[in-house]
Amino acid sequence: MVMMHAPVSLSCSSALKACLESSMAAKLSETVAVAAHACRDSLLRAETLIQLGLIPKPHSHTQRVPHIRQVFNWDCGLACVLMVLRAAGIHSEDFSSLRNLCSITSIWTVDLAYLLRRFGLEVEFTTITIGANPEYAKESFYREHMAEDGSRVERLFQEAAAAGITVTRRSVSCAELKERMLAGSALVIALVDKTRLAGHSVPAMQAPPISPGLASRLGLAPSYTGHYIVICGYDPATDRFVIKDPASAAEMNSVPCASLEAARHAYGTDEDLLLVTAPSSPSLSSSVVNF
C-alpha cells in the first residue's frame, strides 16, 4: 500500500508546486507590467513638464564656441568677443582687426559691447553701476588708467542706447544664468575676478567689518584681477557652468556654480555681463552635450 500511494503523493505535490510557481510568475509578470506602465507614464509626464518649461532639462546644454586664447595680458576681452563672433558665424575678423577697432589696452565691458554691436549682434549689458565706479580709482588694477578712462567710459554709457546697446542696471541671478544656458538663448561674456575663478575665497572677516576693497589694499585678500570669460553652458547634474577661458589652454572648462558666483560678484566687477544673441534667431548655433 505504501509503495502504491507514494508516487501519487509525489505527483500531487509536484503539480501543486508547478501551479504555485505558475501563479507567482503570472503575478510577478503582472506587477512588472504595472510598474513599467507607471514608469512610462511618469516619464511622459516629466517630458511634458520639460516641454512646458516647468522643470529643467535633465541634461546639460552647451553651445558650440571655438576656443581662442588671448595673446597679451590685456586682451582677454577681445578674445571673448572673437569667440562669440565665430560662434555667430562671423569669421572675417581676427585679433588684428579687433585691435584696430578698439585701439586701447585698457578695455572696459562697455568697449566690448560696442564691438559686438558693430557686427550686428544683439547686446544687453547688465551691471550694478552705470558708468565708471570712482571707488575703483583706489584699486591697483584700475589706478593707472582710471583718470584717462573715466570720461571716455561715461560717454560710451551715455551713447549706448543710440548705438543699439541695451544697458540695464540690475544684478543677474544665478537662476537666470542657468535658465539662459539650458535654453541656449544667449552667450554670456562675464567680467570676473580671476583670483576667485578657481574657487578661491577670502575667509569671512570678524568684527569690526571691513570692505573687500580695503581688505585687498591691506593685503588681507588676493588682489583683484579683472578677467573676461565666455559662459556657454550649464550641467544641472553637477551644478557646474561650462566656460571658455581665454587664459586657459583647455578647450573647455567646467566651473562649480559657487566658484563662478564668487568670481563674478567680487568687488571690482560691478557684476558686468554681456548677454549676446544673433539678430536673426533667438539663439546662436548650439548643441546639446552630455557630460
TrEMBL record:
This is Guanylyl cyclase. InterPro entries: GUCD1 (IPR018616). It comes from the Eukaryota. PANTHER family: GUANYLYL CYCLASE DOMAIN CONTAINING PROTEIN 1 GUCD1, PROTEIN GUCD1. It comes from Coccomyxa subellipsoidea (strain C-169) (Green microalga). It holds the Pfam family Guanylate_cyc_2.
